[in-house]
């Protein structure tokens, strides 16, 4: 890939694009919003696949269990939206995290990405949006290094560079080896930090009630799922929730008012949860600002159409 093409691929693409969404959907209440938001922008996205990412926390008994629950949650969201046409391109992902930075984890998701990437070129890339641990994508890159030429990867992971422990964030810290593969592979990469940037995307029960109640089936599910989750730990108290993963969709549909980014040298996530920086390294795109109100305005207007 020429340097000119590399920097072109770091810009927000014009027109309709082919995209794979890699998501740990059952982990939180926000991935469901991201799936619906993406499908609502049908003028922008030609969805080639949705892949289930592993996760491990109080909602799962292992990374494999988290991935399996996410796989079924993806299908549930598609059912609520009557989008069974996409069922056949939903793939199970990795059962474990990367054992090291050279060994991919086999999965239908990684094979799907690695094989599909061969149909694209730097001039006509495949876009991969990751909103969970980046295991599936890193495994695909290790399986097929041509992905670094033929794909543009957008990932919501890590923290703002202004925060002391860059890698101490759920998506990144789950699989530091995979994060290092991604940051070192020199594929066009758009990095959207969670803490310090995306955490501006807060909402409350009362805002969601106002904008989503009785609009359609998916709006009702998103509303009730969010409220039930929050009130399971904060009933009778003030609460707000970050709808983190819609930020990945926002980067693609940004009209210039929703999000700002800049070129930075790719960081190196470290196993101690810090990051190394070197100004000799390749450049990536880094999101540093999100206009919370503009993003939610577009989200709600999009969800109404579903």
Please sum up the structure shown:
This protein has 306 residues and is of the alpha/beta class.
- The total domain count is 1
Give the overall silhouette.
globular
- Helix count? 12
CATH class membership? Alpha Beta
Instruction: Give, in spatial order, the strands making up the sheet with the most strands.
Output: 3-2-1-4-5-6-12-9
> Biggest β-sheet, characterized?
8 strands, mixed
The assigned structural class equals alpha/beta
Distance between the termini: 38 Å
Order of helices and strands: HEHEHEHEHHEHHEEHHEHEEEEH
Number of DSSP E strands: 12
- Amount of beta strand: 15-25%
Structure description:
The protein is an alpha/beta fold and 306 residues long. It has one domain (3-201, 243-301): Ribonucleoside hydrolase-like (Inosine-uridine Nucleoside N-ribohydrolase, Chain A). The protein has twelve helices and twelve strands. The protein has helices spanning 3-9, 31-40, 63-80, 108-116, 135-143, 147-150, 170-173, 176-184, 205-212, 217-234, 246-253, 292-303, and strands spanning 17-23, 45-52, 90-91, 126-130, 151-156, 189-192, 202-203, 241-242, 259-265, 268-269, 275-276, 283-290. An eight-stranded mixed β-sheet has the order 3-2-1-4-5-6-12-9. Helix 4 crosses helix 5 and helix 5 (135-143) crosses helix 8 (176-184). The longest helix is centred in the first third of the chain and has 18 residues, at 63-80. The protein is globular, with a radius of gyration of 18 Å. The N and C termini lie far apart (38 Å). The relative contact order is 0.15. The mean pLDDT is 97.
């Amino acid at each position: 890939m020429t340097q000119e093409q590399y920097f072109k691929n770091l810009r927000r693409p014009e027109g309709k694009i082919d995209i794979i969404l890699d998501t740990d959907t059952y982990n939180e209440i926000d991935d469901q919003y991201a799936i619906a938001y993406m499908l609502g922008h049908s003028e922008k996205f030609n969805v080639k696949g949705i892949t289930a990412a592993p996760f491990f926390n109080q909602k799962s008994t292992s990374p494999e269990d988290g991935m399996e629950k996410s796989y079924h949650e993806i299908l549930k969201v598609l059912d609520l939206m009557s989008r069974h046409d996409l069922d056949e391109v939903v793939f199970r992902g990795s059962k474990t995290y990367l054992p090291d930075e050279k060994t991919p984890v086999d999965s239908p998701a990684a094979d799907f990405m690695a094989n599909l990437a061969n149909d694209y070129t730097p001039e006509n890339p495949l876009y991969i949006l990751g909103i969970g641990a980046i295991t599936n994508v890193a495994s695909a890159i290790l399986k097929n290094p041509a992905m670094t030429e033929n794909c543009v990867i957008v990932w919501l992971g890590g923290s703002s560079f202004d925060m002391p422990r860059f890698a101490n964030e759920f998506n990144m810290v789950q699989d530091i080896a995979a994060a290092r593969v991604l940051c070192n592979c020199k594929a066009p990469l758009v990095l959207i930090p969670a803490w310090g940037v995306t955490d501006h995307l807060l909402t409350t029960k009362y805002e969601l009630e106002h904008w989503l109640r009785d609009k359609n089936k998916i709006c009702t599910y998103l509303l009730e799922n969010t409220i039930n989750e929050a009130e399971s730990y904060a009933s009778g108290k003030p609460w707000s929730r970050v709808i983190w993963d819609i930020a990945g969709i926002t980067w693609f549909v940004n009209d210039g008012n929703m999000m700002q980014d800049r070129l930075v040298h790719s960081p190196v996530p470290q196993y101690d949860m810090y990051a190394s920086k070197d100004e000799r390294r390749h450049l990536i795109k880094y999101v540093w600002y999100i206009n919370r109100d503009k993003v939610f305005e577009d989200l709600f207007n999009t969800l109404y159409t579903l």
